[in-house]
Amino acid sequence: MISQLAACQEITDSLLIGDWIESDLRPAQNTSKTTDCNIIRVVFHVITDPSHPFANAEISEAQVRSQVRAANMFFRNDSLNYHEDNNGLGYTVKLAELDPDGNTTNGINYYDGIELFGDDYGQHGLNSNSSSGISPVTMANALAWGADADGKKYLNCYVVNRIDGTNGGGVQAYAYFPTNNVVYGNYNLYNTIGHHDLEGEGEHFILKTYTNEGKVWAHELLHNFAIFHTFQGQSCTETNCATQGDRVCDTEPQTQPSGNTNSCGTVSHNLMDYLSEWNKHIITEGQAERANLAIQNSLEDYLVCTDCSTSPDLNSDGFVNVQDVSLMNSSFGCSIGDLCYNPAHDLNCDGFINILDISLLSAGFDGSVSTTHIRPLGIITQKVYDIRGRLVGESLDDLPDGFYVIRYSDGTVKKVCNGI
Fold first, then answer.
1. How many CB atoms sit inside 10 A of residue 168's CB?
2. How far is the CA of 400 from the CAs of 145, 251, 340, 405, 416, in angstroms?
3. Angle between the N-to-C axes of helices 355-362 and 322-329, in degrees from 0 to 180, rounded to the nearest 10
4. What CA–CA distance (Å, rounded) separates 235 from 227?
5. Rounded to two decimals, what is the model's pTM?
6. What residues contact 222, with CB distance under 8 A and at least 6 apart?
7. CA distance 332 to 361
8. Cα separation, 339 vs 177, whole angstroms
9. 253-267 b/e with 16+ CB inside 10 Å = b?
10. Which of 148, 159, 205, 352 has the most CB atoms in a 10 Å sphere around its CB?
11. CB-side neighbour CA atoms (13 Å) of 163
12. What whole-number distance in Å separates Cα of residue 175 and Cα of residue 185?
């Protein structure tokens, strides 16, 4: 029986984890699959339950936006979800702004579940382990968004009233590894979506106390990006970390924990473990690399670009100074899709407004707090980051072969394969 602290329920259909091809995680040879497009559009399908007025699953737009923001903070190791041992991803999730037909949207759709699926949905919700309720295949066939006119796909996220008849303990959510089947996406209880400290401006979010930090959906997204649970294999030993357990060599082999400790006597503090949310802080370097490779090789059709043209002279007065820093503070910590996100402040065009943008802004200073600009705005500089978002230098010279992101001070972003 899964405890209330369980973040998700694994599914082992052939469409999912069992038959996912590990070779899809190998770096491409003699051809670059890198791109300057690093945004994955998500669409939330909120299936309400009017038969239960006090638990109807109708969460607000602000609650959904708080969830997207929390996940991006975790994946960027930024702001509220910063931890010294966490490793960020090179990608951003963003609520869709256009539907497949090109119509404007906020990326959140609401449906009457009883009208769509009948009383079985009201009584049982989504099916996971039981024979009652609506199957993910039925739900996805009815609601999933396909590709847009350019052939670019959306990651479908479903928010439901119950899973196997309950909205409390038991299965909180589940997700599929990369697959071309219509079910690909993630399926979540309504009271696990959101972060209680973000967005809303005092609005009351419908969240459980043990799933109120937005880590359930972030956990499910990593499943969508081909990451196993840390306790995959249920063993305290491995002879080959690349083919056993979670297939990641910098996570310790372990069993599923009881409370926060597993039978191997360790606490992983990992987002992909079954732990209390307050005890989940990290994605390891190996997990980040595996997720990035899965996205690059299996989810290329989901990646879209965003137009970005920025200047560190935020107030357009011809100077780069403390006034510009003050303006950036108003959106510091925000990411693309957040209500507080200002694209003019995203100087490196990575979808986040954080210390990297402050660094680019300060490049216009001479080191002193001055009201006169020292560096002409037309001079373009560059910084090089690895695929986990860590600054590694200002040139590819002397860097080992691999994937890198070059961010130019004029707002241009380029991903390169050094040595290939």
1. 12
2. 40, 24, 38, 14, 12
3. 170
4. 17
5. 0.75
6. 271, 272, 283, 287, 291
7. 13
8. 30
9. bbebbeebebebebb
10. 159
11. 26
12. 6
The pair of structure tokens assigned to 6 is: 């369980």
Alpha-helix runs per DSSP H in 88-170: 113-117, 119-124, 136-143
Task: Please name the residues in contact with 339: beta carbons below 8 A apart, sequence gap of 6 or more.
Answer: 62, 65, 199
Lowest mean pLDDT among 101-105, 166-170, 366-370: 366-370
* Long-range CB contacts for residues 147-150, cutoff 8 Å, separation at least 24: 147/100, 147/301, 148/98, 148/99, 148/100, 148/102, 149/100, 149/101, 149/102
Highest mean pLDDT: which range of 106-110, 205-209, 309-313, 381-385: 106-110
Say if residue 274's pLDDT is above 60. Answer: yes
Alpha carbon 60 to chain centroid, angstroms: 20
pLDDT of 378 reads: 36
CA-nearest of 352, 349, 356, 360 to 312 is 360
More confident residue, 252 or 29: 252
Mean pLDDT of 277-282: 92
- Residue 103: count other Cβ atoms within 10 Å of its Cβ: 7
* DSSP secondary structure code for residue 28 in this structure: P
What would the pLDDT profile of 177-212 be if each residue is shown by its tens digit?
999 999 999 999 999 999 998 865 557 899 999 999
DSSP sequence for 195-260:
BTTSSGGGPPP---TTS-BSHHHHHHHHHHTTPPPTTTT--S--S-TTTSTTS-TTS------BTT
Structure token pair of residue 247: 């297939």
Most confident of 14-28, 34-48, 384-398: 34-48
In this structure, the dihedral spanned by the alpha carbons of residues 334, 339, 344 and 350, taken in order and rounded to 10 degrees, is: 50
* Residue 156 contacts residue 170 (beta carbons within 8 Å): no
**Pairing outcome for strands 108-112 and 39-48:** parallel
Residue 254 has pLDDT above 90, yes or no: yes
Two tokens, residue 270: 């990992």
